[in-house]
Every structure is written in C-alpha cells, then in structure tokens.
Amino acid sequence: MRISAALVAVTFALATSLAVHAEEKRKADFSQSELKAKIDYCKTCHGLQGQGFRGSYPMPRLAGQQPEYLVNQLQAFIERRRNNPVMFNVAHVLSPEMEKALAQQFHDLDPKPLDGISRENLTEGKKIYLEGVVKSDVPPCASCHGDDARGRDAFPRLAGQLHDYVYKKLTNWDKERGQDKNNPDNSAIMQPIAHNLTDAQIRAVATYLSSLE
Ligand code: HEC
Ligand code: HEC
C-alpha cells in the first residue's frame, strides 16, 4: 500500500518536473568546448567511458543512466537532500542547461560493465531482483527498475552498476538520501526497501546487478 502511494508521488513529481523543464527551455548558456571540458572533468572520476571506477571510494557508473534520474541527483546534491560533499562541489556550479546536456551525454554511452568478477550469489540475487522478498515485504526490484534493470525516467538504471557502490548506497540509505525532511523526494520510495533487505541479500542483488549489461 505504501508503495502505491509512493508511486503516485513519483508520477506527480514527474509531471511537475516536465512542466518546469518546458518553462526553462531557453538557449544553451555554454559552448560545445565548455561542455566537452566539463565531461572530461566528470570522467576523471567516473571513468573514461562513464563506466565507473572501482577504488576505496567507488565512483558510480553513469553510462546508460536515465537522463531524468541523473538531473534529479545533481539537483539533490545541490540542495543537500543527498549528502555528498564531493558531488556538492561539482554540481553547484552547473546551470540547468548544462545538467541536462551532461545527463544526455552520459546516457548515450554504452561500455561493458566494469565488475562481473564474483559470480557468488548470482542466482539468489537474480531471484531477489525479479521476485522480491515476500516475507520481508520487499517488492520485486524489476517492478520499478525494469526486467532488464535499465530503468525509466526517474527510476534509475541499475544494470552494470558497481557492486561496491550499490552495496554502500543500500546500506547507508537513511544517512545519505532524503536528508531534507521538509522537502521529501523520490528517495522515500527506496527507504523501506533498503531497510528491509539483509546484508547478505544486498550483497547478492548487488552481484547480480553488477553483472548485467
Ligand atoms: C572528484 C571526483 C568526482 C568528479 C570530478 C565528479 N564526480 Fe560525480 N560522483 C563522485 C562520487 C564519489 C559519487 C558517489 C557519491 C555517493 O556515493 O553518493 C558521485 C556520484 C554522482 C552521481 C550520482 C549517481 C547515481 O547513480 O546516483 C551523479 C549523477 C554524478 N556523480 C554526476 C557527475 C557529473 C555530471 C560530473 C561532472 C560535472 C561529476 N559527477 C564529477 C565523484 C565525482
Ligand atoms: C516502488 C519502486 C521501486 C522498487 C520496487 C525498487 N526501487 Fe530502487 N529506486 C526506486 C527509485 C524511484 C529510485 C531513485 C530514488 C531517488 O531518485 O532518490 C531508486 C533507487 C535505487 C538505487 C540507487 C541507485 C543509484 O544509482 O544510486 C538502488 C541501488 C536501488 N534503487 C536498488 C533497488 C533494489 C535492489 C530493489 C529491489 C530489492 C529496488 N531498488 C526496488 C524505486 C524502486
């Protein structure tokens, strides 16, 4: 029940964001070379093909990500609804037009997944992704993120996302996302889901996702 109420909230947020974007339709305030310089800068952390970077602090894959989700996250960093000092510094200088252009550029990239090392728990992860965990009230991930995990609109692509990044996000949801209680956002939809998964279930589903193209 909670989920369908949340879905209504997402649909509403989507409708409003479309209206806002229509109003913002004005000429780009940057040149192509400025856009390229910015993309090169993003790639120093997010990988040359936007495939992510596996290190002590995992850099998420941006390649193939849904443009609307990307813009939502940049906005969440700027407004500190999503807590990350590095990305606050990166994002707060971007104009709305630049955000949209960057989002489209990363959406259009299609490198192979970086991970796919560990095949452990792959079967369990796939089951959780497609069927959810009934006894813990976890709906199938596929019902929102799509059977192929490529997402849609404000629902992010998870296919090919780094294992360590997915693990970190799902185990820290309450501390990082939806941090402005007066301005709730789409992150509220994921809160009970992240909360109800066990550590082992999160590892399994993260393994599955990191293996998908
Ligand atoms: C200095 C390194 C660095 C640079 C440069 C950088 N990022 Fe990031 N970015 C990160 C880190 C680290 C995270 C993960 C934050 C977290 O764990 O929540 C991230 C997360 C993101 C996310 C959220 C992804 C998701 O799946 O939710 C987006 C979107 C993003 N970055 C876009 C950009 C764009 C666009 C640029 C260039 C304008 C850029 N980043 C430049 C380090 C960087
Ligand atoms: C009811 C719809 C719904 C279901 C079911 C759902 N998600 Fe999500 N998920 C979302 C939405 C919406 C977001 C984006 C939240 C935001 O914009 O802050 C999201 C975000 C995420 C993120 C963050 C992505 C990133 O790049 O930072 C991960 C990881 C994730 N979901 C994993 C899962 C897993 C694993 C499952 C199944 C156990 C699942 N989701 C089930 C709607 C859902």
Structural overview:
The chain has about 210 residues and is mostly helical. It has two domains: about 30-105, Cytochrome Bc1 Complex, Chain D, domain 2 (Orthogonal Bundle); about 120-210, Cytochrome c-like domain (Cytochrome Bc1 Complex, Chain D, domain 2, Orthogonal Bundle). It contains eleven helices and no strands. The longest helix is centred in the N-terminal third of the chain and has 22 residues, at about 1-25. The mean pLDDT is about 90. The chain binds heme C (2 copies). One heme C binds near residues 139, 154 and 177. One heme C binds near residues 41 and 156.
Write the layout of secondary structure elements.
Layout: H1 2-23, H2 32-46, H3 67-78, H4 85-91, H5 96-107, H6 122-131, H7 142-145, H8 163-171, H9 173-176, H10 187-196, H11 199-211
Bound molecules: heme C (2 copies).
Outline of the structure:
The chain is mainly α and about 210 residues long. It has 2 domains: about 30-105, Cytochrome c-like domain (Cytochrome Bc1 Complex, Chain D, domain 2, Orthogonal Bundle), CATH 1.10.760.10; about 120-210, Cytochrome Bc1 Complex, Chain D, domain 2 (Orthogonal Bundle), CATH 1.10.760.10.
